[in-house]
Amino acid sequence: MALLVQKFGGSSVGSVDMIKRVAQRVVDSVRSGDSVVVVVSAMADTTDEMVTLAEKITSDAPDREMALLLSSGERITTALLAMAITNLGTPAVGYTGQQAGFKTTSGRHTNSRVAEIDSTRIIGELDVGKVVVVCGFQGVDENQDETVLGRGGSDLSAVALAWALKADSCEIFTDVEGVYTADPRVVPEARKIGKISPDEMLELASAGARVLYSRSVEFAKKHGVVIHCRSTFSKETGTLIQEDAAMMEAVLVRGIAHDTDQAKITIRGVPDKPGVAARIFGRMGDASINVDMIVQNTSADGVTDMSFTVPRSELKKVMAYAEPLKAEIEAREVIEDADMAKVSVVGVGMKSHSGVASTMFSALADNGINIEMISTSEIKISCVIHRDLAEEAVRVLHRAFELDAD
Predict the structure, then answer these.
(1) What does the pLDDT look like over 361-373, one tens digit per residue?
(2) Averaged confidence pLDDT in the chain
(3) Angle CA 405–352–404, to nearest 5
(4) Residue 204 and residue 259 in contact, taking contact as beta carbons nearer than 8 Å
(5) Structural contact between residues 394 and 344, judged by C-beta atoms closer than 8 angstroms
(6) Tens of pLDDT along 142-156?
(7) Do the Cβ atoms of 109 and 161 come closer than 8 Å?
(8) Residue 248, in any domain of the structure
(9) C-beta separation of 190 from 404 below 8 A
(10) Which residue has the higher pLDDT, 25 or 60?
(11) Do 170 and 268 sit in the same domain of this protein?
């Protein structure tokens, strides 16, 4: 008998029929002797619909009320799934994030962090043989205000709950069969990865692979939670995310990720003197803007150009800060480009092998793909390119590193 935390995303619970199908899968686990806690997302597109509703009211909705609005989608799914499981003869109870004991940090209602989980109530329900269905993505802060964990936060809810309950497994169910060497919709030859390290998965997730939320992988790595990423619609084994040093170092490049939601901002004619960069990126940090790659050109005549990337969705917000900042630091101009993408190669084997960068750059150059920015770490190399070339770049690199080979 095992204690399982199973998480089902919006694409898995997108209709009443799909919720019934998930309920049957949960019941099958219980009938095989397991205790199950289920974490669910809102039904597909529900969160986007609520954002659209808010935008019809105001262009500047308060974060507190947005969190209250956005947290409602998971409540619908939780209630319906608990009903469906009970209807199949297995007792189930639905919990909001607050009822499940999720306490979050204060001050950031729409992008909060897990501070503490009191799992006492959940354990009590498991002890009497019930399935507990929990609203993912949400909790309450010290003021008892509703908070949400940011897009993809249900993954984080599931991993954090698996840690708090000391669960035997944390299964993340999606509409794909696991983690692939590239997006199979872009590269039909992409292969499912049987096992991947948390470091590699974290880099892939942060580079654009949308199978798992990067913060959930970060939490799992920190607390030693093993994640099994698998398909809602298949009984096949998916991808295990866990440490296995002996196997990992044998693979040079684990996968290719791409992110087409990128924008580039260039501030030209920046005075090259101490404190200017701190001023620019301090302002971005104060506005909770997630800056990714940063490149500064060599100084000439006491000035330099500075470029950085942000999610395209934050471009308008960035420009609202960048234009006044230009005058403050006496820069010449601010240029925006919303048509950028990032393509990355990831693999822990890169630590001990040379030639990855040259293979990557040569493959892109041979196919006429221009690189605008480059960023590297021990196990990842990322290039910013034009968005229209992103999918071709992924296919080119997948072939160059022979990831379609057995």
Answers:
(1) 999 999 999 999 9
(2) 92
(3) 10
(4) no
(5) no
(6) 999 999 998 889 999
(7) no
(8) no
(9) yes
(10) 25
(11) no
57-72 core/surface letters (b: 16 or more CB in 10 A; e: else): eeeeeebeebbbbbbe
Distance between CA atoms of residues 357 and 376, nearest Å: 9
Contact status, residue 70 vs residue 47, Cβ threshold 8 Å: yes
Tell me, yes or no, whether 201 lies in a domain: no
Strand pairing partners for 114? 104
- Where does a domain end: 175, 210, 225? 175
Tell me which residue range forms the domain holding 136. 3-175
Share of the chain above pLDDT 70, in %: 98
- Asked if residues 173 and 9 have their Cβ atoms less than 8 Å apart, the reply is yes
Domain count, the chain: 2
Tens of pLDDT, residue by residue over 279-331, are 999 988 888 788 999 998 877 888 999 999 999 988 988 998 888 889 889 99
Q: Please tell me the distance from the alpha carbon of residue 105 to that of residue 363, in angstroms, as a whole number.
A: 45
**CA nearest 163: which of 301, 39, 328?**
39
Q: How far is CA 232 from CA 16, 189, 213, 388, in A?
A: 15, 22, 17, 32
**Domain check: are 163 and 265 in the same one?**
no
Running DSSP on this structure, what letter comes out for residue 403?
T
- Calpha distance 337→181 (Å, rounded): 29
Q: Measured between alpha carbons, how far is 382 from 377 in angstroms, rounded to an integer?
A: 9
Is 266 found in the same domain as 154? no
Q: How far, CA to CA in Å, does 10 sit from each of 13, 15, 76, 135? A: 5, 9, 12, 12
Say yes or no: 11 and 111 in one domain: yes
Q: Of 128, 148, 175, which residue is a domain's last? A: 175
